[in-house]
Amino acid sequence: MQIELFILLLMWAPGLSSIFTRLLLREGLADISLRIKGPQIRKTLPFILLFPVAIGIVAYGIAWAAGLVQFVTPDSFIKASPIVTFAALLVMQMVVGTLVGLIGSAGEELGWRGYMLTRLIDARVPYPMLTSGIIWGLWHLPVILAGNYYSGPYPALSVLLFMITITSFSFIIGGLRLATGSVWPAIFLHASWNAVIQDVFDASSGGKNALLWTGESGILVALALLAAAWIVSRRAVDAERMQRKGQLRA
């Protein structure tokens, strides 16, 4: 219970810091659009719920199929075959787990994407998405180096892979926040990721090399997210080019 409370307070540190800063500078909350509305936000919901599942199927699926990581049936109140149990837990975490996870993810996202990212852009910091991802990753490093969070058999490698994972994810979650003009999609995607990856895919993985290949400091998860970030970034660049061409023709 004490550890869970500590983690919750840690997750809310960025959010509380941003709120205090807003109050101090009298900036208000209009720029994060706290009201859940608009077609853009609704259109992101399928992506929010299915993106972690897709990453999990690719990264963890390869690890299980190749025998790099052992597939195990997680402890659950569901009494069925391993596959049925996994599927039931996956659906439950996609919905219930995501909703519960909003409590913690709101704290981080109010700070990282709700405040820091936009301020980096306003300050014209070079590569704001990359910079925000690096800062977000560095913020996690003390608990990784202490062995309390996704610390694999090789600490230095765990740090490197985690930084790739978190920076890549930052491009995706930051892109949602900027595209919709609201912090809610970022909050929901963060909660969905934690619920699906940590509470389903991680819980279904075992063996001495589990943290080497899977998890947020795992090789396969880092590569899968890096590829996803590249695809999303390329699409965003292509869309911007098409928009500019349309404006020039008009």
Automatic annotation (TrEMBL):
Membrane listed as a keyword: yes
InterPro entries (UniProt xref): MmRce1-like, Rce1/LyrA-like_dom
Enzyme class, broadest EC rank: hydrolase
Transmembrane segments: 6-25, 45-71, 83-106, 127-150, 156-176, 183-201, 213-232
Residue ranges constituting the CAAX prenyl protease 2/Lysostaphin resistance protein A-like domain according to the UniProt record: 94-196
Its EC number(s): 3.4.-.-
Protein's name in the database: CPBP family intramembrane metalloprotease
Species of the source: Cohnella hashimotonis
